[in-house]
TrEMBL record:
Record field: transmembrane: 170-192
Keywords: Glycosyltransferase, Membrane, Transferase, Transmembrane, Transmembrane helix
EC number: 2.4.1.-
Species the sequence originates in: Colocasia esculenta (Wild taro)
Top EC class for this record: transferase
Molecular-function GO terms, alphabetical: quercetin 3-O-glucosyltransferase activity; quercetin 7-O-glucosyltransferase activity
Family: Belongs to the UDP-glycosyltransferase family.
Entry protein name: Glycosyltransferase
InterPro entries, alphabetized: UDP_glucos_trans, UDP_glycos_trans_CS
Nucleotidyltransferase found in the keyword field: no
Upper lineage: Eukaryota, Viridiplantae, Streptophyta, Embryophyta, Tracheophyta
Amino acid sequence: MALAPPLHVLAFASPLQGHLSPMLKLAEALAIKGLLVTFLTTEHVYHRLGGADAPLCCRDGLRLRSVPDGLPADHPRLAGHLGEVMRSLRDTSREKYRELLVSLGKGEPDGLPPVTCTIVDAFLPFAAEVAAELGIPVMAFRTSGPCSFWAYFFVPKLIEQGEVPFPAPILLFVCVGGFSNIVVWVVFLTLVRRPRAAEGCDMDELVRGVPGTEGFLRRRDLPSFCRAKDVNDPVIQATTLATQWNPRARGLIFNSAEPMDAAVLAHIRTLCPSTYTVGPLHNLVRALDPSHIATAAAGLWREDRTCLAWLDAQPPKSVVFVSFGSLTVLSRAHLLEFWHGLVNTHHRFLWVIRPDLLEETGGAGDVLPELKEGTKEKGYLVEWAPQQEVLAHPAVGAFLTHSGWNSTLESISSGVPMVCWPFFFDQMVNSRYVSEVWRAGVDMKDICDRATVEKMVRAVMEGETAEKLRKNAAALAEMVRSCVGEGGSSRVSLEKLVRDTKLGVF
Ligand code: UDP
């Protein structure tokens, strides 16, 4: 009897490091499970990954394809330009994507089985629309965590209830008059609800409109775009669009481990019953196929692996790893505050300073000699690190992070406590969960003077608090890692995802 041809899935990823890595891991996991996966990204990313020679192309059942993003080769494609990147991708690639889906739907051009299902990065709603118009089932993949998805989902409701934009500060007018020397008139201008600014309002006020987060989610922990003054802000509009379609997809996939997010997942499943938790995907793929060497190679930058040898020479848990991900930009003042704060702790540190980390033109190059000189034997600077390997290294004792979801998961699965300094978007929510729900780190959101940096780093490296955080982080790591082992929840969820995809039932 002839074998049935493999099911062919098309996965479409946003052209950002933090989206690409988990989407590629998901594609690999599906390929290991016998599906044929066409992985679609932009031409720019395709070439940075190595094109047809990309190590990932060695994986049976996985092949890369690309569409143009409409931007010039030298476009920075950085944090400050994200809107431009996503708009240009939508406008340029929509029709190309349709043509590709139509031809792949007919088994063209290379005689492969037709694509019968797509997995679309949640931040590409246009790609979901195109597939739906062609009658091809769409699954949504959120590369950020369930906790931030849930907060994003309620932003329209927060707006409706007047919780977002944040209220103007309460102004206190003290009038000194003629009644027994002091008469105090307090005028609460917030009684008149006007267009309001975030500055000066009480950012520690608890948020009421996100079910399940009452008691710990503050205004400052909401996604960064909630700080906009105007509900018509284009980022609010775009992220709302990118979130509200997710429950209408056939399935919703998270790079998270079930027990980590059980409470919020229970809420999410009331909206999206077909929710799959298959993370941490980098651990899952390694567990499914320990011998495969290509699994770590999905980076857009060249890794400086010399830092691993430097780490080998450091005592256990003595190094603070510092990395702000692929998009964060820092002002020169912030960079120096971090540096002084770190140096003042007298702990060793390994710091990733991307060439484009500094927001001022000229990059970080011109301050690096000064930092390198001052860092001396205690520190090691690289432009891009093999982060997963660094976090798994026994010399690393803490992670000063921007709380990107991948970094958070990688730290959690390695049992490394975090100092969180979220920069934007979901990172605001993630860092609150790290400190208040998982208790695996401290959150220094919105502050980065050298004294605070020093205090926070000491808190995760020294004394009783550090001891407690280490214990919590280790327990969390064990729990999360067990999810990707035989019979673990992420393995079971992946099996279910494959089965549902094959049967076409979601
Ligand atoms: N990363 C890396 N080397 C570095 C810095 C970052 O490999 O020097 C990887 C990191 O392991 C993570 C990704 O880049 O997988 C960053 O994703 P995240 O969601 O943490 O942040 P984003 O870059 O999206 O802000």
